[in-house]
Amino acid sequence: MAVKVIIPTPLRAYAGKQESVEVEAATVGEALSAVTTRFSDLKKHLFADDGRLRSFVNVYVNDEDIRYLQKDQTSVKAGDTISIVPSIAGGARS
Amino acid sequence: MSGARLMVSQEMIQRMHAHGVETYPHECCGALLGRDGEGSREVADLMPLANKRDDSPRNRFELTADDVRLAEKTAREKQLELIGWYHSHPDAPARPSEYDREHAWPWYSYIIVSVQKGVARDTTSWRLKDDRASYDPEAIETVAHPAGI
Question: Which residue on chain B is closest to A55 by alpha carbon?
């Protein structure tokens, strides 16, 4: 099932400068895995060393935050749009 | 991205300083709207935002995905791009901390304003390297007025 994954502006350089990528997947986790397999340089910006999504990476399926669905096990169907949206954080002292 | 330049008007530098002074001793933050060019980019407008880290605002800032989407929408409406972010370091240098680096995205410009004892001091800009290990400094070029690249 082809789903569309929207790549956020700061990561487009690592995804062939594309705004979106179509992949075959049944879950969000499969879709993100397919995208990072195709564009391996994306991986370190989306996933921490333990393989989990970085805390400031937000993923939506058709505007629904996957944290309130089944996270990376959230099912997707043909025509769904997965959006990767940054949140921004920082601060003076480590 | 070595040698990158960021053009910012004096008026916008003053607005970022004023924001950092206003929220001192807490961190201020906001979005940089502008135009991305070859080797240089220009800040054409600022979008001050509220720091969502109310548990530790003296040394942390956070903006939500909704803030990011709002900043992107506002940039599009002004026919600009969301090119980066600014925040203040109260009583700390205008250099990225390890926490900044861990949470940074590539491509964006990150302006840091050091606010020492309530007075805005240094202003620097940084871009995360591709390998996430460190930053490249981005030279701030102060211009009299925002203009097209």
Answer: B103
CATH architecture designation of domain A2-86: Roll (3.10)
Domain count, chain B: 1
ipTM: 0.93
Q: How do residues B89-108 score in pLDDT, each as one tens digit?
A: 999 999 999 999 999 999 99
Question: Once rounded to an integer, what is the mean pLDDT over residues A49-62?
Answer: 95
Q: Is A91's CB within 8 Å of B110's CB?
A: no
Hey, which bits of B37-80 come out as E strands?
40-49, 61-63
Whole-structure pTM value: 0.95
Residues spanned by the domain of B77: 5-143
Whole-angstrom CA distances from B5 to A33, A92, B37, B40, B92 are 35, 23, 10, 5, 24
Query: What CATH code is carried by the domain that includes residue B111?
Result: 3.40.140.10
Domain boundaries in chain A?
Answer: 2-86
